Amino acid sequence: MAALIAIALTGSGPLKPAAANAAGPAFAVGMYNTGTPWSFTSVSSLEAQMNFHMQIIHWYQAWGATPVNARDFDPSFLTATVAHGSTPFISWEPWDITLATNQQTFPLRAIASGQFDSYIDTWANGLHNYGQPVLLSFAHEMQGDWYPWGYGVNGNTAADYISAYRHVHDRFTAAGATNVRWVWTVDADDAGSSRPPATTFYPGDAYTDWLGVDAYNWGTSQSWSSWRSLADVLSNTYQEFTQLNATKPIVLSEWGSTEAGGSKPAWILAAANDLQQYFPRVQAVIWFNEHGSRWAIDSSPQSVAAAGQAFRQLANPGCIGSGSVATQTNTSGSGGLIVRMGTLTCLLIVPPTLGAAVVAAPAASSPAAAPAVPASIPPAPAVVVPAAIPPAPAAVVPAAIPAAAAAVVPAVSPPEPAPFVVSPVGPALFDGAPFSGASASVATPARPRAESWLGRVLRNGLGVLRGAFGRPAPRPTVAGPDGDRLTIL
Predict the structure, then answer these.
(1) How far apart are CA 169 and CA 165, in angstroms?
(2) Which end of the chain is less crowded, N or C, counting CB atoms within 10 A of the terminal residue's CB?
(3) Which residues contact residue 239 at a Cβ distance below 8 angstroms, ignoring those fewer than 6 apart?
(4) 23, 397 in Cβ contact below 8 A?
């Protein structure tokens, strides 16, 4: 998977989903982890706990020399990240982190005038010689006043920031560092904020490959904050980005939630569903895992488990290998179902504006083979589209999916047979609350057709089971209108 991500990052376009399907696009999922890439022990331990491998490793390197955050270009960090099976993502910060925010160590105007070109060129040439894909974010969160390059700090203006950013970019272009993908990262904008909108600081399409945003749920940890969903935090900036540029991919360069004021595990699961359904331009997400902080992924065992589930869902939303539990349950916040077939888990999503469930095809199959299931599932709590995003049916079906893959059965359809109910094995959540069972209906009878992806899965998978354990008893099935039949194991 890391190789696929690396290949995708070399082009000028966005990362390509592993499979286009009705559950949403595939995301590249990564993490900033304290102490990485200086050591991979901690992040490897977390990966084992979550049963998920990070496709991107993010870290911060300041221009000012410090014992932990070396200023000089060191290719060993990059090669160690690739050896771990991940793509490097560096936030490159023009400051000395041992000094106060209002320091004059690396002023924006001095950067733009060329005073630090010799240092910039060591990185530009170093990354050019490194040659492999790397994401680079220069001077992030510039709208705030907590960094020396921030708006208003040391008299900085938006024009000062843009000039410095473009100058740094131009030095890399001159060095031939075409393997560097530039991530312009802002802090999430709130409607009605007194600070300038993020778009004020945009350096231009020619200087940006990815649009990045840092989005956090502070909960009740601060006197000025309250519990907010990721959709609420992200919606305003997402709308700004879509108006700023119609095609560039979006990355959550940092995201996280506190435990204060709500359920962090439920927040993580709901965030994954919201990203899939309402933010199709977001194609990569990087959790900010600062050890011992409110954002740490291991702030509770439940948060670790939820993160593993959410990350697997985002990285491969159609079908996820996740153990041998045979169950069918509602997926938290989506109004849909999860069907597990042996070690294969497939999501059946019920888009509220479409009124039908769509079966997601495995990653290796053709998107056009994704069948639909009639919408006779018991009503689930409505999924609320963020107010800042204009509601439209197209918002719940990723734009990259061909129309044939998103075919659905109209909500008004002929009467269906009575549903069957499958009780879950093990814990399950619906909208954050315990859930005891789920139901689905058999659709129209299958018609003769060429063998589909699901037919092959059932024929091969069930054949192995029958050979090992004898022919099993008949099992309940769900059939799509194109003849695919999904067997619940």
Answers:
(1) 6
(2) N
(3) 388, 389
(4) no
Closest CA to 401 of 485, 318, 284: 318
Strands 485-487 vs 477-479: parallel, antiparallel or unpaired: antiparallel
Name the strand (E) or helix (H) holding 434: strand 433-434
- Closest alpha carbon to 235 in 188, 287, 283, 185: 188
Distance CA 347, CA 349 (A): 6
* CB-based contact 55:30 (threshold 8 Å): yes
At 234-251, the pLDDT tens digits run 999 999 999 999 999 999
Q: What is the CA radius of gyration of the chain?
A: 24
- Asked if 438 and 419 count as a contact pair (C-beta separation under 8 A), the reply is no
pLDDT exceeds 80 at position 484: no
Q: Are 337 and 329 in contact (CB under 8 A)?
A: yes
433 by DSSP, 3-state: which? Answer: strand
Alpha carbon 155 to chain centroid, angstroms: 36
Residues 6 or more apart whose CB falls under 8 angstroms from that of 91 comprise 58, 59, 60, 61, 137, 140, 185, 253
Tell me the two tokens of residue 309: 């589930």
Mind listing the pLDDT tens digit for each residue in 351-361?
Answer: 332 222 222 22
- 337 contacts 346 by C-beta, under 8 angstroms: no
Neighbouring residues of 461: CB distance < 8 A, sequence distance ≥ 6:
341, 342, 344
CA–CA separation, 451 and 467 (whole Å) = 21
- Find out whether 196 and 162 touch, Cβ atoms under 8 Å: no
Residues forming beta bridges with residue 211, ordered by sequence position: 184, 250
- CB neighbours of residue 52 within 10 Å: 20
Strand pairing category for 344-349 and 357-359? antiparallel
